[in-house]
Task: structure prediction
Amino acid sequence: MTYGVLAEGTALRRAFADTSLGQIHYRTAGSGPPLVLLHNTWLSSRMFFGVIPDLAREFTVYALDTLGQGDSDPAPADRVLEIPDYARVLLEALESLGLDDAAVVGHHTGSVIASEAAIQQPQRFRKLVISGMPFWRNPATRLAQVDAPFFADWDAGEDGSGLLEAWDSHAGVQRYGPGGSTALFIDYIKPGPRTSLALRALFRWDSKARLPLVPVPTLVLCSEADTFVKNIAHVADLVPNAELKIVAGGEPHPLYDQAIFAREVADYCRP
Result:
């Protein structure tokens, strides 16, 4: 499945949810119990185009763009946002949509935001799926990423050369399937230079302290090809009511084998 291409015939609607920090753009399809999808940093809800058609057969799917990414409003320029801030925005969006008792699925950065939101308001969560959660056993290693050049704000430059550098580092390598690089690049640059804002917040989030506070039933899902699979068992050990599932095959980004992902999510989140 090429990144950013939706299967023909899928009835997908777009709208916005109001929050105190701006409007959150979302895509929705299907009918049935609510299932919320949260994407990885540098991408958008288009990341889930390969799985929405399957999931929409038995769920009402809501694929949200993180604040400051995709078509959601920019993050405030006068403050540094932390993961609890992104979690509060998510919870306000769920309230705006009238969603209670939802199954919430997050991939990479989305898994961290979802976990923090489940700590803040567990009553809104029927199930939680944290997919490929970033985790570092050494906090110093995690915190060192905050100022790493790869996660810095980009600068287009007066001659646009910075855009070419962004293309080479984040899209042109064709990691996301034939023809997918243009859609991927658009998602990367759309937020503007602060495209890594949520990712830097992720590096500051103390996963060892926060994960034991997640009170809802949780599936810790990961592909054996995922970048973070080596530490995923530690994530499952920290979450009190967690089931660990490591699946075979696929690529690490943006989603691994999409048919497997859709099946595992549906099996766990089905009422």
